[in-house]
């Protein structure tokens, strides 16, 4: 490789690194804005101002707001997969999903997880405030939700005794459905202006004990 070729490759690498940093800045700015203002309230101009990058740079990386939000969901999904890559029992899942995402336990909370939970609203029908069936962001979220559900089932399967799973193979799926219903419900409740002041950590513990009790019941049935 000639010296001029090496210099050219070096400049190319520098430009790529700079482009990657700009893209990351845009995504992080969009994440903060989306959590505060939602999809409808987040504009490309606001992302430009928040990221400190010119509007042309934002549009160079993302041709539309839909494309930006699809990339943002992919960023959050990657972070979620890393967080949930290891063993995870019902109690940890519910603590993270109820106490963490409600803001009651900041140590069990990430902005990426919060956005994925908030994005569930986008999957609703248009009549209920969703984005509508023709929206790319909604379609991307639904694809990710399917993948996340499969991971949740795998993690919960690992936490249930093997003999119980063998006797009741659909139990982990049922527990996953129940845990999602609980975490989704408490998240909506925590972000509603019309709700009681609740101790979300206490309710996370109650939810965990309820589902652990179900597992114990199935374990007795498997042994009997």
UniProtKB/TrEMBL annotation:
Keywords: DNA-binding, Transcription, Transcription regulation. This is TetR/AcrR family transcriptional regulator. Residues 1-21 are annotated as: Disordered. PROSITE patterns: HTH_TETR_2. GO terms for molecular function: DNA-binding transcription factor activity; transcription cis-regulatory region binding. It comes from the Bacteria. Gene3D superfamilies: Tetracycline Repressor, domain 2. The keyword Transmembrane does not apply. Residues 9-21 have a biased composition (Basic and acidic residues). Residues 20-80 form the HTH tetR-type domain. Pfam families: TetR_N. Residues 43-62 bind DNA. SUPFAM superfamilies: Homeodomain-like (SSF46689).
